[in-house]
Amino acid sequence: MQKFDSKVAMTEFGFVSNAQAPAFDPTHHFMDYVAPKNVNYVFREELLKPFMNWLYTPFGDAGMLVGPTGSGKSSLVEQVTARLNWPCITVSAHSRMEMPELTGYNLPVTDPVSGDLNTKFVDGPLTKAMRLGFVFVLDEYDTLDPAVTVGLHAILEGRPLVIAENGGEVVKPHPNFRFVACGNTCGQGDDNGLHAGTMQQNLASLDRFRVWKVDYLQADSEIAALMQGIPGLPENVAQNMVKVANSVRDQHQGKNGNYLSVTISTRMLQRWARIALAYTQLGASANPIQDALNESLLNRCDKTQRLGIVKIAQSVFGGTWSHAA
């Protein structure tokens, strides 16, 4: 995998900037690991510039993106690397994850000639990324058992990985290897009860990260992204959907003393708009916006949560919510 330019033309990202990151020849052998490009993705310059500069020169730091559910943490990494032709592997963490899930296992294999049963070490996703120079994304990082994160210390600061299961093999990190963690909390535990399963992480682990906060898009940017990604969506409908989404998000985060246990992520907002437009165009529903919201979110809410969100939607779309289409 060969770098061909150290200063990428930022018009690829929707604006001009002097942010730098290495880009790679699009004919390299690992293009299957490059994330698909979403041409409608909206980059935020205030996030893109520092993140790109870290990719270019990490100075021994790992990267961490922190923000609410569905704010676009892992998608930022994937869409940046897609435009740089930089292979990227994303793995979702969980509370029972152990190091071999990341580093690799010894698996039984049968010799095709002798028929003898032997074992062969197979690289895990982290080991593969380190060997080959990929960007490795560990999503939901804050759900990990802190004992596992301690085992990652050497990797997080750019030192080699020692694989005991493979006879103590030492895997030196490729110069292009980058480690990115994504989480809903800053690793200090869940202070508002919104993110079940997250754990307080070891302070020594957190000290090895450069951290960026990723919030939801500003309303005007999200409206523009919604209309660009879903052609034909009326602007007034997009505006109202974003108003509903932001009101739900505020209550999910406990603003104004109100709490909802669910939220509307950017992904869910797009689903709501996509279904509503399809139902409108097909004439498949008398109340396409309401039915689309039911399918996107409300049908999995309890009665109290559903009532609260319906009231928000009624206040935005008007008293005739059932006929808002």
Structure description:
The chain is α/β, with parallel strands linked by helices. The protein has helices at residues 45-56, 73-84, 99-103, 125-132, 146-151, 153-156, 203-206, 219-229, 235-252, 266-282, 288-296, 303-317, and strands at residues 3-5, 23-24, 62-66, 88-92, 104-110, 117-123, 135-139, 161-163, 169-171, 178-183, 209-213. Helix 10 packs antiparallel against helix 11. The longest helix is centred in the last third of the chain and has 18 residues, at 235-252. The termini are far apart.
What sort of overall outline do the alpha carbons produce when their principal axes are compared? elongated
Residues in helix, %: 25-40%
Strand content: 15-25%
- H and E order: EEHEHEHEEHEHHEEEHEHHHHH
Give Rg in angstroms. 23 Å
Largest sheet: 5 strands, parallel
Main sheet: strand order: 4-7-10-3-11
> Could you give the distance between the termini?
51 Å
**Which residues sit in consecutive blocks of at least 5 with pLDDT less than 50?**
193-197
Q: Count the strands?
A: 11
Overall pLDDT, averaged? 86
The number of helical runs is 12
Q: What would you call the structural class?
A: alpha/beta
